[in-house]
Amino acid sequence: MLVLEIMAGWMQSVNQSMMLLCLIFLGMAPTANSIYPRIRLSHKELLQMNRTWIFQGQGLLLQPQTMLLDESHQRLYVGAKNALFSLNLDRVNAHYRQINWGSTEFQIEECMMKGREKPECANYIKVLQQYNQTHLLVCGTGAFNPVCAMVRVGHKGQETTFALEQESVMSGKGRCPYDPNSSCISTLRRGELYIGLYTDYWENDGALCRLNNNTYTRTERNDRQQLNEPKFVGSAVIPDNDDRDDDKVYFFFTERETDGEGVNRGVLTQIGRVCANDQGGQRMLVNRWSSFLKTRLICSVPGPNGIDTHFDNLEDVFVLTKKDEKNPEIFGLFSTTSAVFKGYAVCMYHMEDIRAAFNGPFAHRERLEHHWTAFEGKVPYPQPGSCASKMNGGSFSNSKDFPDEVLRFVRSHPVMYRPVLPHHHRPILLQTEPSRRKLTQIAVDRVQAQDGHYHVLYIGTDDSLVLKVITIYNKDTDSIEEVLLEELQIFKVPAPIKEIIISPKRQQLYVGSEVGIAQVRLHQCDLYGSACADCCLARDPYCAWDGLTCSRYYPAGVYAKSRRFRRQDVRHGNAVQLCNGLQIDDEQWQRAEERLIYSIESNTTLLECVPRSLQAKVLWFVETKGEKHEVRGDERVIMTPHGLLFLHVKSSDAGVYVCQTVEHGYVHTLLRINLHVLRAERLDLAMRKAKNEGGDGAAAQCHSIIIPPAAPSVSSQSLQLPSVPAPNSRLWYKEFLQLIGYGDAQKVEEYCERVWCSDKKRRKTKRKYAALGGVKRGKGRGEENSHRAPRHTLDT
Ligand SMILES: *[C@@H]1O[C@H](CO)[C@@H](O)[C@H](O)[C@H]1NC(C)=O
Ligand SMILES: *[C@@H]1O[C@H](CO)[C@@H](O)[C@H](O)[C@H]1NC(C)=O
Ligand SMILES: *[C@@H]1O[C@H](CO)[C@@H](O)[C@H](O)[C@H]1NC(C)=O
Ligand SMILES: *[C@@H]1O[C@H](CO)[C@@H](O)[C@H](O)[C@H]1NC(C)=O
Ligand SMILES: *[C@@H]1O[C@H](CO)[C@@H](O)[C@H](O)[C@H]1NC(C)=O
């Protein structure tokens, strides 16, 4: 279809410069480190394409504190303020169940009497664990008076059961912090709760504990060598071998470093571990860990002057379990601790490196003011920090049997000398540009693609985004490439992402922020376009071109149907090689959409062309006498992210313009624009003719479309063309187009009827100009933003 468009000079010169400034600013080339997402999707777009569903509860801010995925019951449990929810994993906003669990009036009053603010004096659910097949263990802050209870969820298949067992309500002291803002992590194994928290009202006693119905084992109180002002970030139970007695519990936390004088210095990230079966000592270390050790988790990049930049503040951690349970991959999201320079990094760790660090040597210092050295003295047997298991010849069946010297040693040497270094000795992802955007959460999926396995990182930001990124390590150059596949705006309003849970089974993310819980599909392959090149250039390991469309990639053998050839190249995105012969450029050139655009001499004209991919480079060509020349742009003809902008169109500018994109060497012709430049005198003539012919009201509607309706700054002067007293529309157009040399009256008539006068098109046009108006004001992301229009330079 031939698309015809009339662009009258709709920009007034006064506003012109402002608008241009914006366009030019937005078109700034990204600096070396920044990467553009290939696709950017607004909240509205995600909703429209059914990629996301949002649960917001009833009216009030949900304020979720913790979430738990239960695949066996097909539910997502959410601990929030004064309430617990059980959501449907298929549709978080349908058929949910709710337990209200607030504090009593009396408790709230008591809390406020202690000097607390009203919002703090509520029951924030911070612990939510699967206790056994039928019950959850749930604990809340209870208006600064922690409480725990059991929640019945029933057996598998009884998904509608969701009830708090009143008789199970008990004190939550030592299992849940008092302060809603307090960091708290927990994990449950065989009915035992492992938890990192501040156990007291004043938040002095940070501890790593284990609770079961008869014992309470924990770190030493007031031992700054074990824990010093910890912030608890994550925990996991990881087996060492097939002997369950050798299972270890790992804790990830930050703490303050102290110097010789006991003065607090910077913050560091630590990984601590205990034996899951640790019963403490018999005579000493009673109800204290007999196996607690810790070491530093490093995430840094080498600096030019030999000084490394350290990312010492752990924001979030994700343990990616694999078939081999003993060797999960661990991903840490870190930030710098500097007040001046805020950067973020993701580092990945392997268990073998972690185990190696815990196997020694121990760190030692003679006195507080001395430096740490590797302990070179005699280490007692069994190895301090090892578990009472078959590993030690089976002679110790319980930690209470360990010799005193072992306990004494572990008590005085809880720190390992060697830190844990990340895989590749550097971050796999970096954000070092000054930016207001903070990274808050991480979840990782391991995806099998045709050319290997990829880690797809989902990173939450403080402004409601989830970034979907892959990182590709190049062995030859020893470098890491980050590919930002998608930038998804999960919530309508900017709010920090507080939690991301991934369900590889369902191919869904569950994302929590204080405004709600979102369910988001991991991929949407058709979005990249139906051509082989579109799919290949996307480099999304979930997607491959199947000969017809871009669709979900399944590794061979998963489905019999998928045996036919699939085209995918995540590592290089080499569409030229992969899709060659499928689309001949010449053919494309001819087949590309064609548009006719009219401009008035010395007016401003924008030839709009925005590629779907924000990573594509746009090139413009003009065809004259069968030859094509690249348009380089100058001070009059400017290449903007929205298209080619002519400041003062000359008649010599008329011609056929071709908009092409280049991405990974693949050239794609998007659009051919036939630009006609009208002489002012001829236009005047047309106007006068039109005026003389008069018209009716209905036609005015049709004409008004030519005016950018949402651009109030356009003066009446530049509205000359459409503001003529409405003539008979069809006649007028016919005359007008004939006058300017366009012959096919039939088409014109059809066009006016079908396109210009239809409501749909009108709204669309209106939107387009409204959007441009938004650019002019240089404001943030509008609801209507299309993923085709880059509004911001991305600073990720
Ligand atoms: C989204 O879902 C609604 C209701 O289920 C349906 O009517 C609509 O067509 C869907 N939209 C898309 C883009 O699939
Ligand atoms: C947590 O602390 C921040 C300030 O540090 C405060 O604004 C917020 O209200 C607190 N949240 C709760 C639930 O008390
Ligand atoms: C789970 O624990 C609860 C509370 O202790 C108990 O009542 C229930 O019987 C247990 N369920 C199973 C299946 O063991
Ligand atoms: C908790 O107590 C019950 C009854 O006293 C006992 O049967 C059970 O084994 C205990 N659980 C743990 C984890 O010790
Ligand atoms: C656009 O062209 C019209 C008609 O010649 C003229 O009156 C108007 O001033 C022009 N506008 C600009 C911004 O140059």
UniProtKB/TrEMBL annotation:
Its main location: secreted. Residues 768-796 are annotated as: Disordered. One of its GO terms (molecular function) is semaphorin receptor binding. Residues 601-660 form the Ig-like domain. Keywords: Differentiation, Disulfide bond, Glycoprotein, Immunoglobulin domain, Neurogenesis, Secreted, Signal. Residues 780-796 have a biased composition (Basic and acidic residues). One of its GO terms (cellular component) is extracellular space. PROSITE patterns: IG_LIKE (PS50835), SEMA (PS51004). InterPro entries: Ig-like_dom, Ig-like_dom_sf, Ig-like_fold, Immunoglobulin_dom, PSI, Semap_dom, Semap_dom_sf, Semaphorin. It comes from the Eukaryota. Pfam families: ig, Sema. This is Sema domain, immunoglobulin domain (Ig), short basic domain, secreted, (semaphorin) 3E. It comes from Cyprinodon variegatus (Sheepshead minnow).
